[in-house]
Amino acid sequence: MSWIIARRRRPAAGYAALLLGLVVVAALYAAITGSGGASASQNQAGQGTAEGRALFVQNCSSCHGLDAQGTSQAPSLIGAGAAAVDFQMSTGRMPAKEPGAENPRKPVTFSQAEIYAIAQFIASLGGGPGIPSADMVSPNGADTALGSQLFSANCAQCHGFAGAGGALTYGKFAPPLTQATAAQIYEAMLTGPEAMPVFGDGVLSPQAKRDIIAYITQTRTETNPGGLSLGRTGPVTEGLVIWLGGLGFLVLIAMWLTAKRRHSGNSEGTEQS
Amino acid sequence: MSDNPSSSEEEHEGPVAPRRVVGTPPPSPPLLSGSAEVVAEEPVEGRLPAVPEDVARADKAERLIAAIFVLAFLAGCGFVAAYVGLEVHSVNAVFRSNLALGLSLSVVLLALGAGSLLWVRHLMPDVETEEERHDLRSSAKERAAFQEYAVEGGRASQVGKRKLARRTLMLATAPLAVAPVVLLRDLGPLPGTSLRHTVWSPGRRLLVYGTNTPLSPAMFNEPGSMITIVPDGYTDNQDELAKAAVILIKFEPGQLDHFPERRNGSTLLGTVNWTVDNIVAYSKICTHVGCPVALYEQTTHHILCPCHQSTFDATKGAEVIFGPAARPLPQLPLTTDSEGYLVAKSDFQEPVGPSFWERG
Amino acid sequence: MSTTAPEVPDAVSGLGGWLDDRFHGARGFRTFLKKVFPDHWSFMLGEIALWSFVILLLTGTFLALFFVPSMSDVTYHGSYTKLNGIQMSQAYQSTLRISFDIRGGLLIRQIHHWAADLFMVAIMAHMIRVFFTGAYRKPREVNWLIGIVLFTLGMLEGLFGYSLPDDQLSGAGLRILEGVVQGIPIVGTYGAYFLFGGPFPGNSIVPRMYILHVLLIPGIILALITAHLFIMVHQKHTQMPGLGNTENNVRGQPFFPYFIAKGQAWFFFIFGALVVLATFAEINPVWLYGPYTPVAISSASQPDFYMGILEGSLRVFPAWEWNFLGHTVTFSVLIPALVPIGLVFTGAALWPFFEQWATGDKAWHNINDRPRNAPIRTATGIAAIVFYGVLWAEGANDVIADKLQVPLYTITWIARVMVFVGPAVSFWLTRRICLGLQRKDTMELAHGYESGIIRQLPNGAFIEVHQPLSDSARAVASARKEVPVLPSAGSVDVNGVRAPAGAGLLGRARSAANSAFTETVAPVETNGHGSGSGSNGHAAVGSGTEELPQGSDSH
Question: Could you tell me which chain B residue has the CA closest to the CA of A254?
Answer without folding.
Answer: B117
